[in-house]
Amino acid sequence: MIKTQVVVIGSGPGGYTAAFRAADLGKEVVLIERYENLGGVCLNVGCIPSKALLHTAQVINEAAEASHFGVTFGETTIDIDGVRANKEDIVSKLTGGIKALAKARKVQVITGYGKFISANQIAIDDSDEVIEFEHCIIAAGSRVTKIPAFPFDDPRVMDSTDALELDNVPERLLIVGGGIIGLEMATVYNALGSEITVVELADQLIASADKDVVTPLARRIKKQYKEIYLNTKVTKMEATDAGIKVNFEGKKAPETDTFDKVLVSIGRSPNGELIDADKAGVNVNEWGFIPTDKQMRTNINHIFAIGDIVCQPMLAH
């Protein structure tokens, strides 16, 4: 058994900064991370790799539009392996940096899936390790929301993590969900040469944003993408030899169509129900969020919660 003053579950932007701050204040700290690298979703399969790819897309687009400013480049050649390698190099440097900072602060990092077994103990799955703590900070994050009826077992149906892998550039790509993550990936794949179709259930793109902000963006990308369908729902998705066959529903919904790949980007779900919080007495609401007070304290006095697991918008950047 490991005894510590502070244990932090999750090493994302909330978790590792909380762990480092506690260590700086002289506390003994254990940081639990289920994956091999520190940094959480944001650094490994979210904000950072997406921004690296968005920068590549920006360079491609600026080169294409440079003639408007009197500068003309030759034909742009895109090396997908090089684009992918650049993204992975950026992620590797940053995860390595966080690992070094943890070591310098003498934060003990444990790799594994942590779950509560009591109000003062956490067990690590697939091991005999148990951590006994005085205070806990839950920063267990969120996961991609998936629709069970969609054939995610087919590699041509992607979530945001799959899309960031950049295995290849499909000729025709359907993006289900016109939110921030979906449109970021639309920007990247459009710049790399994909024909983009976006389907959004709401009556505007990025439904959480003010319409005045979204309108200029919508006007621009409508010129770049093949189609954008609002107030439209995907009712069925089927894997065929020719591609992913998709059925739509809505007043202006298109006919059934087939795409080379489909990215399903309909949001994220908090991990509140996946860490056995109830065994610690911590309340988790019906959506999987953990309610807190203004100090981020849960209903259990010595247990706090931060980040995606607490509230929307579940985005670090």
Can you lay out the helices and strands and say which pair or pack?
Layout: E1 2-9, H1 13-24, E2 29-33, H2 40-45, H3 47-65, H4 80-104, E3 108-111, E4 114-118, E5 121-124, E6 130-138, E7 142-144, E8 157-158, H5 160-165, E9 172-176, H6 180-192, E10 195-199, H7 211-224, E11 227-229, E12 233-240, E13 243-249, E14 257-259, E15 261-264, E16 268-270, E17 303-305
Parallel strand pairs: 1-2, 1-6, 2-3, 6-17, 8-15, 9-10, 9-15, 10-11
Antiparallel strand pairs: 4-5, 5-6, 7-16, 12-13, 13-14
Could you give me the name of the CATH homologous superfamily of the largest domain?
A: FAD/NAD(P)-binding domain
The number of helical runs is 7
Q: What's the CATH architecture name of the largest domain?
A: 3-Layer(bba) Sandwich
Could you say which overall geometry the principal axes of the C-alpha atoms support? globular
Q: Mean pLDDT, rounded to whole units?
A: 97
State the helical fraction.
25-40%
Secondary structure tally: strands = 17
Number of domains: 2
> Unreliable segments (pLDDT under 50, ≥5 consecutive)?
none
What is the CATH class of the largest domain?
Answer: Alpha Beta
Cα radius of gyration in angstroms:
22 Å
Distance between the termini: 37 Å
Sheet/helix structural class: alpha/beta
Largest sheet: 7 strands, mixed
Under CATH, the topology of the largest domain can be stated as FAD/NAD(P)-binding domain
Tag the structure with descriptive keywords.
single chain, 317 residues, alpha/beta, FAD/NAD(P)-binding domain, seven-stranded mixed β-sheet, five-stranded parallel β-sheet, 7 helices, 17 strands, globular
